[in-house]
Give the backbone structure.
Amino acid sequence: MKKYQPTQLGRAVVRFFQEYLPTLRGMSRHTIQSYRDCMILFLGFAAKDCHRPIESLELSDITADRICRFLTFLEAERGNTISTRNVRLAAMHTFAHYLVSDHPEQMAALQQILGIPFKRGAQATPIEYLEKTEIEALLGSIDRKTPAGRRDYAMFSLMFNTGARVQEIVDLRVRDIRIEPPCQVRFTGKGNKVRICPIWPRIARLLWELIENQRDGDDDPAVRHVFLNAHGVPMTRFGVRYLLQRHITAGAKTEPTLAAKRIHPHSLRHTTAIHLLKAGVDFATISQWLGHASLNTTMRYARADLDLKRQALAQVFPEVLAPPKGGAFIFHDDNVTAWLRRL
């Protein structure tokens, strides 16, 4: 059997992720994983576009035209937003910067890649989150009689409880959980920032039962991941997304509104934030709870919920701004301009 010899592009990709991003750029693990996801998508697209397997792709196949087609593919076929498209382009820009230093002979083509602009006009899409009845339908659709069902119920309950990012959930280890009061979990978020989140005692019991049933390995139990798949290895973000979609579909049979929403794991994080806000929790506390780098990130939830807007409207000059008794304004004059000035 002929031994596989990596191409220049293959070697460059390996060095990019093993040396350049973590060592020279000092990027966090979460950012590197985001770049990895982008590279997987792009290489798959480029292989189809070139009609060759990924293993045979060369540096010369990384062109500005192909990347532009890739960006169009993300929006048109994968349904990505402009913001996501720009994040993917940022990853490709970083890769092009790296290639310029290692392969100056490709500078002209790489500069064309660096010249691809970010797309303006990214609209703030409405934040999708679940109402109380939808949360109950989702969790109620999970069959807790099976080991997989008990794992899923504990995992999604924890996500609703803490508003954790999906990567924080799949990275969670036994040592990060405090079962005894005060019950809490420790997450390592973006930028390797550590935060502590309180959890309800019943969630702690679910986690304890899950951990107890997994005690069958020879390794240190404290460093084991909490959420494992059917093969006994840690869950992935893609696995969590698949399970969420499956339970959403099942929950939609009892709560039809679920079928009309585009729910993904981050939607559970949005759900926690919205319900904390509705409960009267201040922005600073929610920001710390969710591990936001900026309070501005938390503030967007105030614009997301219609109930909050109604509450705010009812509290601002309710008598002054109320419409006059008897219904709408009455037009008494043939002079429209004068009427408008009186409004």
